[in-house]
C-alpha cells in the first residue's frame, strides 16, 4: 500500500494533528478494492460509516513498509482493529481520485451527536457555563424559538456545547433577543431565558466602584475559573515587585483569603479592588466589549483610566498601591457616615474637622471626621444617618502631609498613551479626552478632593453615552446611588444598570462568578451592544438539525384596497370556483354604456356576479354579472350578461415534441469546452442532440468509434 507524501504532508502541517498522541490514524480502501474510477470516494465513505457505527478503527491490509519520506509525520497505520480510546469519533475522508470530485468530507459519529458517548479529553470544557442567545423578529416568534431550542437541546444533550456556537456565530441576531446561561448538566427550560428588545446603536459605558465594594476571597472564583485572570495577576504582581519599596504580600494570596482576610485594611483594599477591575476590563476587551465612556467613583478612577486606554495596567496597579502604603503610616482612623441629605442640606450641620468626602447621589453624601475628639457627626439627626463606620480619608488633615509623597512616588511610573476614550472625572466632573491630563498632579487631586460622583454621572447622561451602564468591581456597590441619580433626572427610560459581579456566599451554579459574568454579557448583547460571542463560548460545530425559524403567519402584510381588489382577473376567479375547468362561456351580453376613461384621472370599476337560480332551492351553473363604473359622482352600468365556467368547445390540442430544441454536435462540444471540459476527436461521439428546456432532459445518439488496438 502506498501513502501519498503530498497528502500526508498537508496533515502534518496542522499543529493540532502533529502533536496528537499516537499520531494521526490513517487508512485507505485501495488495497481492498483497487481503483474505484467514477465511484472514487464512495467506498471510503462506506468504510468510514461502518467504522463509526461499530466504534472500531479497521486495519489496513497489504502494508509492507511506509514511504521513508513520511516517517516523521506522526502517522499510525493500524494493522489490527483499534478502539477509538480517548479520541473523538470523527473521520476525515480525502477524495482525489481520477473521474471523481476533489473533495474532503468530515463524518461525526451519530452516538456523539446524540450525547451517548463518554467525553473525550478534548471536550472536558463542555460542562462549563455557556451563553446561549436566541433572537426573532417579534415577541411571539421569540417565544416559539425559545421553545424550539429547549426541546432540541433536551432531545440531543450532546449538542448543548455546539448550540451556543451555532446560534451565536452562525445566525443573524434580530431585534427581539433572549439569553440564558446554562451547561450540559442542567436541563434547558424556557423560564431560564431573559428577554429584551434591542436598542438602536446603544452606547455602553463603564462605571467603576471605589473602596467599600471589597469582600473576603473575592478573587478566588476568578482565579480558579479563568487561567487568563491568573496571568493578569502575575503581571500585576511583577509590576509591584519591580518597585523600590515592593509589598511583602501577594495579590493572588490576598484575593483568596477567607477568615483571615485583610481586604478592609487600607494597605490592601485599594490595590486588590483595582486588580479585580483590571482583570474584568481585560476579560471584557477579549470578548469584544469596549466602552463609549467611563466614570469612576473615588479610587475607581484608576481602573477607569486604564479601561479608557489612558494609562497602562502597570501604571494603574502602582497608582492603587501607594495610597494604601502611605495611609499605613498614619496612626489614627477616621469616622465616616453616609447621610441621607443633599450637600446643601447637610452643610449647616458641619463643624470643624467634619468634611464632605463624597457626593454619591443627589440625596446622600458621605462625611468624614477624625476620631479622638468629640464626634461632630452625631450632631446630625440620627434619622438621616444611613451607615456608620471607620476608614481612611486622604483629604483629611491627618493625611495632608502624605499627599506630596504620593505625587512624588508616582514619578517615573506613569506610562501615558497617546489617545483614550472619554472619561468623566469625579474630581472635576468634566470630560477628559487627553491622557496627559491624568498625570501625577491629577491623581493627587483625586486623593485631596471630594468625590463628585453624582455630578460626573449626570454629565455622562447629558452626553448621551450611557444607554447601558456596566458596573465593574467585586460587588454592585453603586446600584443604589446610580438608581437615585437616574430618578433625579426624571428620565422616561433610564440607562440599564448591569453589574459584573455580586458578593455571594452561595456555591450554586447561578452564584458562580462565571455565570455572573456571562449574564452581564447576555444583557449587553440582548440590548443591542456588541459582544464577540465566538470569544465568549469558543468555537464549536455547526448544528444543522436545529428547527427552522418560526414564522408568524397570523399577520397579513398584503393590505388590498377596494380599488386594487376590483382589478383581479375574472378568469382566475372562475378557475377558483371551478377547479380543473379551463376557460369560460358568456351569453346574453349587453353593452349599455361606453366606458369613459379620463386621461387625467383614474376610473373605478366594479364587477359583481350572482348565481342564476333554477328554482327556490337550486342554482344553475350560470352567473349573472354586472360591470359598473364610477366617475367620481355617480355609478354607470357598463355591461351585463351571464357567464359560466368552461369553454363551449374543446380547445385545439397542439402536440409539442418532447425534445423540441435541436443542438448541433459542434456547438455542444464548444459549449463544454468553454466550461473546461475539452474532448478530443476520439471522444466526440454524441450525435443528434436534442433537449427539453422546460423538463430538464436531453437525448442523443452515440457514434461508437472503433478503438485503436494497443501495442
Describe it for me?
Helix 11 (266-286) packs parallel to helix 12 (300-307). The protein has five domains: 24-114, Peroxisomal Thiolase, Chain A, domain 1 (3-Layer(aba) Sandwich), CATH 3.40.47.10; 125-201 and 507-549, 2-Layer Sandwich (Alpha-Beta Plaits), CATH 3.30.70.3290; 206-332 and 391-494, Malonyl-Coenzyme A Acyl Carrier Protein, domain 2 (3-Layer(aba) Sandwich); 562-645, Thiol Ester Dehydrase, Chain A; 661-702, no CATH class. The model is unreliable at 1-6, 115-126 and 381-390 (pLDDT under 50). 29% of the residues lie in helices and 20% in strands. The protein has 711 residues and is of the alpha+beta class. It starts with a helix and ends in a 9-residue tail after the last strand. The protein is flat. A hairpin with a 5-residue loop joins strand 19 (604-613) and strand 20.
In a nutshell, what does this entry contain?
Residues 660-711 are annotated as: C-terminal hotdog fold. The chain has 23 helices and 24 strands.
Keywords:
711 residues; disordered N terminus; single chain; 5 domains; Malonyl-Coenzyme A Acyl Carrier Protein, domain 2; 4-stranded antiparallel β-sheet; Alpha-Beta Plaits; alpha+beta; Peroxisomal Thiolase, Chain A, domain 1
Spans of at least 5 consecutive residues with low confidence: 1-6, 115-126, 381-390
On the 0-100 scale, what is the average pLDDT?
81
**Portion of residues in helices?**
25-40%
Provide the structure class: alpha+beta
Beta-strand portion reads: 15-25%
User: Given the C-alpha coordinates, what overall shape results?
Assistant: flat
CATH fold-level assignment of the largest domain? Malonyl-Coenzyme A Acyl Carrier Protein, domain 2
Q: Give me the number of helical elements.
A: 23
- How many structural domains in the coordinates? 5
Give a quick account of the main beta sheet: strands, pairing sense, barrel closure.
6 strands, mixed
- What is the CATH homologous superfamily assignment of the largest domain? Malonyl-Coenzyme A Acyl Carrier Protein, domain 2
Radius of gyration: 39 Å
Question: What's the end-to-end separation, in Å?
Answer: 29 Å
Strand order of the largest sheet: 15-14-9-8-16-17
Number of strands: 24
Regarding CATH, which class of the largest domain? Alpha Beta
The CATH architecture of the largest domain comes to 3-Layer(aba) Sandwich
Amino acid at each position: 500500500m502506498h501513502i501519498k507524501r503530498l497528502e500526508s504532508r498537508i496533515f502534518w502541517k496542522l499543529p493540532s494533528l502533529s502533536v496528537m498522541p499516537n499520531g494521526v490514524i490513517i487508512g485507505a480502501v485501495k488495497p481492498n478494492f483497487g481503483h474505484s474510477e467514477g465511484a472514487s470516494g464512495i467506498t471510503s465513505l462506506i468504510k468510514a460509516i461502518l467504522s463509526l457505527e461499530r466504534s472500531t478503527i479497521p486495519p489496513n491490509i497489504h502494508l509492507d513498509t511506509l514511504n521513508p519520506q513520511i516517517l516523521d509525520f506522526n502517522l499510525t497505520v493500524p494493522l489490527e482493529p483499534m478502539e477509538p480510546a480517548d479520541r473523538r469519533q470523527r473521520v476525515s475522508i480525502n477524495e482525489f481520485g481520477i473521474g471523481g470530485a476533489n473533495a474532503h468530507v468530515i463524518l461525526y459519529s451519530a452516538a456523539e451527536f446524540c450525547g451517548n458517548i463518554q467525553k473525550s479529553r478534548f471536550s472536558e470544557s463542555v460542562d462549563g457555563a455557556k451563553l446561549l442567545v436566541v433572537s426573532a423578529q417579534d415577541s411571539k416568534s421569540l417565544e416559539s424559538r425559545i421553545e424550539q431550542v429547549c426541546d432540541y437541546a433536551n432531545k440531543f444533550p450532546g449538542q448543548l456545547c455546539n448550540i451556543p456556537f451555532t446560534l451565536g456565530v452562525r445566525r443573524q441576531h434580530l431585534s427581539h433577543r433572549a439569553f440564558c446561561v446554562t451547561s450540559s448538566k442542567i436541563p434547558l427550560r424556557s423560564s431560564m431565558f431573559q428577554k429584551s428588545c434591542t436598542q438602536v446603536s446603544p452606547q455602553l459605558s463603564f462605571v467603576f466602584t471605589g473602596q467599600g465594594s471589597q469582600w473576603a476571597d473575592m478573587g478566588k472564583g476568578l482565579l480558579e475559573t479563568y487561567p487568563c485572570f491568573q496571568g493578569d495577576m502575575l503581571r500585576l504582581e511583577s509590576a509591584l515587585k519591580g518597585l523600590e519599596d515592593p509589598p511583602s504580600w501577594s495579590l493572588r494570596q490576598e484575593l483568596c483569603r477567607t477568615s483571615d482576610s485583610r481586604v478592609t485594611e487600607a494597605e490592601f483594599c485599594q490595590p486588590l479592588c483595582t486588580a479585580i477591575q483590571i482583570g474584568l476590563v481585560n476579560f471584557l476587551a477579549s470578548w469584544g466589549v469596549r466602552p463609549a465612556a467611563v466614570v469612576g467613583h473615588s479610587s475607581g478612577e484608576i481602573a477607569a483610566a486604564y479601561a479608557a486606554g489612558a494609562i497602562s495596567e502597570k501604571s494603574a496597579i502602582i497608582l492603587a498601591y501607594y495610597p494604601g502604603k502611605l495611609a499605613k503610616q498614619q496612626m489614627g482612623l477616621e469616622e465616616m457616615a453616609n447621610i441621607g441629605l443633599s450637600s446643601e442640606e447637610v452643610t449647616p450641620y458641619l463643624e470643624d474637622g467634619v468634611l464632605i468626602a463624597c457626593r454619591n447621589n443627589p440625596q446622600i453624601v458621605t462625611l468624614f471626621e477624625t476620631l479622638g475628639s468629640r464626634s461632630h457627626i452625631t450632631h446630625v439627626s440620627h434619622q438621616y444617618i444611613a451607615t456608620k463606620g471607620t476608614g481612611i480619608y486622604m483629604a483629611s488633615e491627618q493625611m495632608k502631609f502624605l499627599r506630596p509623597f504620593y505625587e512624588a512616588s508616582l514619578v517615573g511610573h506613569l506610562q501615558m498613551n497617546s489617545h483614550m476614550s472619554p472619561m468623566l472625572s469625579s474630581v472635576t466632573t468634566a470630560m477628559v479626552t487627553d491622557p496627559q491630563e491624568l498625570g501625577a498632579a491629577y491623581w493627587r487631586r483625586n486623593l485631596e478632593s471630594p468625590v463628585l460622583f453624582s455630578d460626573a454621572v449626570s454629565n455622562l447622561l447629558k452626553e448621551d453615552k450611557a444607554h447601558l451602564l456596566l458596573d465593574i468591581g467585586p460587588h454592585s456597590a453603586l446600584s443604589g446611588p446610580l438608581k437615585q441619580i437616574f430618578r433625579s433626572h426624571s428620565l422616561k427610560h433610564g440607562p440599564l444598570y448591569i453589574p459584573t459581579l455580586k458578593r455571594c456566599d452561595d456555591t450554586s451554579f447561578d452564584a458562580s462568578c462565571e455565570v455572573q459574568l456571562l449574564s452581564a454579557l447576555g444583557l449587553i448583547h440582548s440590548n443591542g451592544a456588541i459582544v464577540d460571542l465566538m470569544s465568549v463560548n469558543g468555537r464549536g460545530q455547526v448544528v444543522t438539525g436545529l428547527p427552522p425559524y418560526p414564522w408568524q403567519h397570523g399577520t397579513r402584510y398584503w393590505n388590498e384596497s377596494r380599488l386594487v381588489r376590483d382589478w383581479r382577473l375574472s378568469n382566475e376567479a372562475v378557475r377558483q370556483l371551478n377547479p380543473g375547468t379551463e376557460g369560460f362561456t358568456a351569453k346574453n351580453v349587453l353593452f349599455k354604456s361606453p366606458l369613459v376613461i379620463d386621461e387625467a384621472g383614474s376610473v373605478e370599476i366594479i364587477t359583481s356576479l350572482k348565481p342564476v337560480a333554477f328554482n327556490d332551492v337550486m342554482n344553475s351553473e350560470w352567473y349573472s354579472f354586472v360591470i359598473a363604473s364610477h366617475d367620481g359622482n355617480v355609478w354607470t352600468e357598463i355591461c351585463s350578461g351571464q357567464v359560466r365556467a368552461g369553454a363551449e368547445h374543446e380547445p385545439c390540442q397542439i402536440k409539442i415534441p418532447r425534445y423540441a430544441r435541436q443542438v448541433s454536435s459542434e456547438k455542444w462540444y464548444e459549449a463544454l469546452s468553454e466550461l473546461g471540459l475539452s474532448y478530443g476527436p476520439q471522444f466526440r461521439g454524441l450525435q443528434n442532440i436534442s433537449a427539453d428546456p422546460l423538463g430538464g432532459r436531453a437525448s442523443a445518439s452515440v457514434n461508437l468509434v472503433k478503438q485503436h488496438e494497443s501495442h
